[in-house]
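User:
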Amino acid sequence: MDLDVFIERHRASWQRLDQLLQRSGRRLTGPEADELIELYQRVTTHLSTVRSQMPDVATVERLSALVARARAVVTGTHTPAWRVFTRFFTHRFPAAVYLGRRWWVTAGVVFYLLTGLMAAWIAGNPDVQATIAAPDELREMTRAGGGYEAYYSSDPAGSFAAKVWTNNAWVAAACLLLGVLFALPPIYLLFTNALNLAVGVGLMFGAGRGDVFLGLLAPHGLLELTAVFVAAGIGMRLGWQVIDPGPRTRAAALAAEGRSVVAVALGLVVVLLVSGVLEGFVTPSGWPTWARVGIGVAAEVLFLLYVFVVGRRAARQGETGDVAASERDDVVPVSV
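Assistant: Predicted structure:
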């Protein structure tokens, strides 16, 4: 295609769009507004054509500037980043967590029940404990200052918190993103975490030091485990869309749930950061047990209030955790 011919053929449309944009500061009539939108779509197509078939720097720059000006008028003023950030944490993230509450609350209840049963079985059966490690190794792990207690002060607080945060973020991401595989990976990850926790609880209670272990676990573990439950629950809900998408098509259901999953993943990064800070700085501190546990309980209560008060209010206002409808429906032509 000849560039000069193309420019001559569409010059009038470009000039007319420029005229309408110059007048957009004043009120356009209905027909003029319709014409502006039509020309914006047409010139967007022209820009795509020039870029793909006859790239000319001057023409591309001219049309890019024209399209950018038109887009600003058609779509409105760009929302400031701070407002997007604020709305994410006051509406989108808490609403997504709240709407998935049946999944992650159920996951948490089952997790604690399963962990408690396995821990009681381990604590009350020396034969089972012997299959986990040799007697000398068990004594080393459960004694005062032993493996379980020393773990939380094994690295400098800042480094330890960063390591814990990174590890937990990966676990949460795996639960969320792999949930699409019929919800099986989150179930497996929850079970392995329940088993690991049950071993520690069971061995420490079997050694008569269960209160010490829970005192070390509670400051960070309540919030950390809740974040894992949220990730697993939302991940399982995503996987359920593969099995039963409801009235929507499977593709539409997965797309909508997938966008909500991204919102939850981003929000949980902050939640797990708080948990990592607690595990790095509060858990190994020399503060009294009641103070450390109290901080952990307070963090957990604040998160639950955030979800069930702020999230509930946002959900009642129609927030689902998905992106705005205008962002979902925006389609740009790519060819003539």
